[in-house]
Structure prediction request, 294 residues.
Amino acid sequence: MPTDHLSTIFAALADPTRRAILARLCTGEASVTELAEPFEMSLPAVSKHLKVLERAGLIARSRDAQWRPCQLHAGPLKNVADWVEHYRRFWTESFDRLDDYIQTLKDKENKSGKQRHNELERG
Amino acid sequence: MASNATTSSNAAEFAYTRVLDPPRAQIFKAFTDVDELKHWWGPRGFQWVSAKLELRPGGVFHYCMRSPQGVDMWGLFVYREVVPSERLVFVNSFSDEKGGVIPNPWIPEMPQEILNVVTFIERDGKTTIHMRGTPINASEAARKLFESSRESMEKGSGGTFQALEEYLATR
Prediction:
């Protein structure tokens, strides 16, 4: 995916209305009228948002049916999500390891503390 | 995941908070001392091949890790702000042997550099580490997206994106 296409996807995702439309389409295809229902927005305004999403390759509109239902195309979105997930996993695992590492330091400290204590007791 | 950790993520930024027992000076050292970083930074199963670290604004942490499959991978931090025990700001990317920035080997089309802001707050002898990562040198559109998502998260209305993520997770 070339960078300019990625920018188009990011731009499409930057708008809360368009994100809500995508979320709605996760549950199945819908007509423009159905998609417009939750918003205080005219049909042409919603159509404009749909065009942005369509250009980004995030949705497709059927040419066959008269009501031209919109469908989600999750591929490009998944790329973005994969990337964030990848980064999240990297850091989560590192922080888990940091936790373990600090625990081993503590154990070592306790051990050497005990040793010193024993040595002192033995005189 | 430990109960003392929280994460949130969306296409815009990655935020992570974790509470650890030791005082922050000790945690800061674990973040900035190359011999300590080797013990925890990076995925499990990777071996350290080489690492050098200069802790100062403009200084770098340039390292190489070998994957369990035997592939060497170079990474780079470029430090922007260093406030001992308190705050660390650095740009993180994949790298080559010479210290140049290269694309993410798995998802090459994604932004290459991520700005990380890590803060260490000490309270009652425990340290809260908060980190936030956002891509930089991304397009203007990407930058806008990061801003809008942060806004919606701060207002507590990030729900739609969460629904999307849950959906994507099942794919």
Q: What stands out?
A: The CA atoms of residues 7 and 115 of chain A lie 61 Å apart.
